[in-house]
DNA sequence: CCCTGATTCGC
DNA sequence: GCGAATCAGG
C-alpha cells in the first residue's frame, strides 16, 4: 500500500482526532502501526503524549546525545521584571464547576493579559536569531507555555451530556432513553443532546425494534440499481469496521 | 505479557 | 520516503 493523497488525508484526520497509531493503522488497512507513526512524523503532525518521554521533570539527566555542541547558555538578560521561574510554581487552576449539577452555560473568563507575555517580540534592534524557547509537551500534545508567558488558564468546557439527565418538561410525557424496552418503538426523534430528544415510543412491531411506521422507514426495499440515488457522502469516511 | 509513541537506519 | 526493528514507559 502506498500513501495516496486520500490516505494521507485520512491519516491526518484520524491522528489529529486522537486515534492511536494502531487504530489508524487498521482503519487505513495495509499499513502497520509503525508505518503510521513514521508517516505522521514525516508529515510533521503534532506528537501525542508518548509513554516514553512523558515526563520531562529532570532536564539535567540528558546524556550527551546531541551532536550539536550545545551553545553556551544565553547570559541571563538583565530583566528585573522576570523573576527566576521556580519550577512547579504554577499550579493549574482547579476546574471551576465543582460538583453542582446545573447546566447553566459558563462564560469563559476573559483572557486577562495581566502578564506581559510574548517576551520574544520586543527584541528591539536585532530580532534575528530568536532564542529558541524550550517548551515541554503536555498531555495531548499541546505546547506548554514558558513561565514567562503564562496566561490565565482557560478552563476546558464542562462535560456535556448526550442525553439530558433532567428531561425538560416538554418531553416529560415522551419516551426517554430509560423508557425503552422491547415493546416500544426505539426510533429516535430529534438528535441526542437536544432538549426535546426522545424516542417514538409507539407499540413496536413484534420482533422489530420499531413501530410499523418506522419499520417502513428503516427497512426499505431495494430499488433497481438504475433508479437509485447515489448515497450521500459519509461524514467521517464511513463506518468503522470492527 | 499487553499496550503506547519515538527513534533509528537500511532500503 | 518508507517502515521494520528497536527502545522505553505505562
Give me some keywords for this one.
242 residues, mainly alpha, two-stranded antiparallel ribbon, 4 helices, 2 strands, DNA-binding
Strand content: under 5%
Largest sheet data: 2 strands, antiparallel
Radius of gyration, taken over Cα atoms and rounded to an integer in Å? 27 Å
Strand order of the largest sheet: 1-2
Distance between the termini: 20 Å
Residue share in helix: 10-25%
How many strands appear in the DSSP assignment?
2
Structural class: mainly alpha
Shape: elongated
> What is the count of helical runs?
4
- Taking pLDDT < 50 over at least 5 consecutive residues as the criterion, the unreliable ranges are 55-131, 137-144
Mean pLDDT: 62
Oligomer: single chain
Biased composition (Low complexity): 77-96, 106-131
Pfam family, one: GcrA
Protein name: GcrA cell cycle regulator
InterPro entries: GcrA (IPR011681)
Structure description:
It comes from Allosphingosinicella deserti. This is GcrA cell cycle regulator. Pfam families: GcrA (PF07750). The radius of gyration is 27 Å and the shape is elongated. Helices cover about 15% and strands about 0% of the residues. It has a two-stranded antiparallel ribbon. The chain is mostly helical. It has helices at about 5-15, 20-30, 35-40, 210-220; strands at about 190, 200. The structure holds a DNA duplex (11 and 10 nucleotides).
Secondary structure layout:
Layout: H1 5-16, H2 21-28, H3 33-42, E1 188-189, E2 198-199, H4 212-218
The structure holds a DNA duplex (11 and 10 nucleotides).
Amino acid at each position: 500500500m502506498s500513501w495516496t493523497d486520500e490516505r494521507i488525508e485520512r491519516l491526518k484526520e484520524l491522528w489529529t482526532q486522537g486515534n492511536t497509531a494502531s487504530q489508524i493503522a487498521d482503519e487505513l488497512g495495509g499499513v502497520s502501526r509503525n508505518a503510521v507513526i513514521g508517516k505522521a512524523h514525516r508529515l510533521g503532525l503534532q506528537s501525542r503524549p508518548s509513554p516514553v518521554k512523558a515526563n520531562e521533570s529532570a532536564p539535567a539527566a540528558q546524556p550527551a546525545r546531541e551532536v550539536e555542541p550545545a551553545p553556551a547558555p544565553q547570559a541571563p538578560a538583565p530583566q528585573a521584571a522576570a523573576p527566576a521561574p521556580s519550577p512547579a510554581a504554577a499550579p493549574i487552576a482547579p476546574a471551576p464547576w465543582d460538583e453542582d449539577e446545573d447546566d447553566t452555560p459558563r462564560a469563559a473568563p476573559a483572557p486577562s493579559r495581566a502578564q506581559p507575555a510574548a517576551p520574544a517580540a520586543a527584541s528591539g534592534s536585532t530580532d534575528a536569531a530568536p532564542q529558541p524557547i524550550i517548551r515541554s509537551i503536555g498531555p495531548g500534545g499541546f505546547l506548554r507555555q514558558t513561565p514567562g508567558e503564562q496566561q490565565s488558564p482557560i478552563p476546558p468546557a464542562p462535560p456535556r451530556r448526550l442525553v439530558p439527565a433532567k428531561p425538560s418538561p416538554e418531553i416529560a410525557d415522551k419516551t426517554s432513553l430509560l423508557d425503552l424496552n422491547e415493546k416500544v418503538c426505539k426510533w429516535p426523534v430529534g438528535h441526542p443532546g437536544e432538549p426535546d430528544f426522545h424516542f417514538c415510543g409507539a407499540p413496536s412491531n413484534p420482533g422489530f425494534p420499531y413501530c410499523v411506521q418506522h419499520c417502513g422507514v428503516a427497512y426499505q426495499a431495494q430499488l433497481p440499481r438504475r433508479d437509485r440515488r447515489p448515497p450521500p457522502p459519509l461524514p467521517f469516511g464511513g463506518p468503522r469496521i470492527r
